[in-house]
Amino acid sequence: MFDPLDLYDGTDTQNEIETSTETYTFINDKAMTPNEVLSEDEEIDNDDAAPLFILDLPPVSYASPETILATLSLLSPDTQVNFKSSAGLTAEEICNSKHITNDLQEAIVDWYANITQNKKLDNISKICNMIPQLVNSSDTERSNLLNYYTSILKKYENPKTVSSISGTIVKEVSLRIAECCGRSAIPSMSRDFKFENMTSIVSLFEPSLTADNLGWKTWGASLILSEVLVENFTNIASFKKKENGEPLKVLELGAGTGLVGISWACKWKELNGTDKNDIEMYITDLPEIVDNLKKNTTANGIDSFVTADVLDWTKADDFVQKYSVEDQSFDIILVADPIYSPNHPEWVVNMISKFLRADGTCYLEIPIRPKYAVERQVLIDLLDKNNFSIGNERYDQGIDDWGSVKYLYREIRRK
Ligand SMILES: C[S@@+](CC[C@H](N)C(=O)[O-])C[C@H]1O[C@@H](n2cnc3c(N)ncnc32)[C@H](O)[C@@H]1O
């Protein structure tokens, strides 16, 4: 686990102003007094179209604690929609979503409009529009951002810095430092997912990624599989109420945060309601993942007909006994990104063999990770050996936290 405070060198507490000025020196190649800093800012401000730099952020030595807290809040991550940051929000919406109170807004506007007279940022709209973009700047600017954060941590960790909001600032800046280190270092987050043809927005909570709990992150394969299934829901013959009066039985394996199963269930609910005579659905994973899965199922309003529970691919009997599940009883099996160890192909094929009905379909999406080419081939061989055929098969281009990823979509049926 990464500790954000590892970045903090607490030995030098006397050079506070010098350190902060040094940051400026590093960028401008000269040392400056506070007044020189301000007049330098004015020069930059004359060009309204000039891009924003970390240099434009309020320096910790001169700006008020409220200004610093407002800045840190603006630099917090946007709620992501479909793995992308949400754009086009008003200043009011941004302030509400980032919990920036009126007092904090006034402090940061005062800093830019009156104290430094920075025309690039002299009203709340410009501030809310431009400052959050600094998080996505170049690698050099990002390392300057890390310097900026550590200078704040250094000042507000120091007991000599007296402010009623020191604790809040230290907490916020520690989160910002962690966020610089990628998804695996982020304490926890929520993400929203929107689909064409569906009114509901799926909102998922992801706990901090600790140990091997890969199911606490939503993976790109689940987004692309959800898009395929939800957006084509009414065209897929098997996604309908059964004519024989029995409930349609749906099972998700290795659901993680639950995107595939939850989005599928939200779409079912919009079209068919929640009558348990029509649908029986289980979204499943390992014990340590299931608490969060249950939370997400409830939060998205589908828990009246969807059960989130443990189904370990190595000991399915517990699940079978608890829910009196018969062999080959599921019409639909959903699986996204289940193969990342040599054992997984065999375990996953065992589960499909055990649970898929004679006329059922398993919808599978896997990322094309170079490291797991062998496991993907073993999966194909085992499916074939167990008398399964691949119906539709297609490569998709999708997205995950680190960018574009290639995926393979497959529909699996018994021969
Ligand atoms: C890469 S994650 C994918 C999660 C989710 N399907 C997604 O795409 O966001 C793989 C998932 O498989 C689950 N898994 C791994 N081994 C398992 C096992 N033996 N039994 C059940 N689930 C397992 C993990 O807990 C994890 O949630």
UniProtKB/TrEMBL annotation:
Protein origin, superkingdom: Eukaryota
Pfam family membership, one: Methyltransf_16
GO BP annotations, alphabetical order: methylation
CDD domains, alphabetized: AdoMet_MTases
Keywords in alphabetical order: Methyltransferase, Transferase
Record-given protein name: S-adenosylmethionine-dependent methyltransferase
An annotated Gene Ontology molecular function: S-adenosylmethionine-dependent methyltransferase activity
GO cellular component terms, A-Z: cytosol
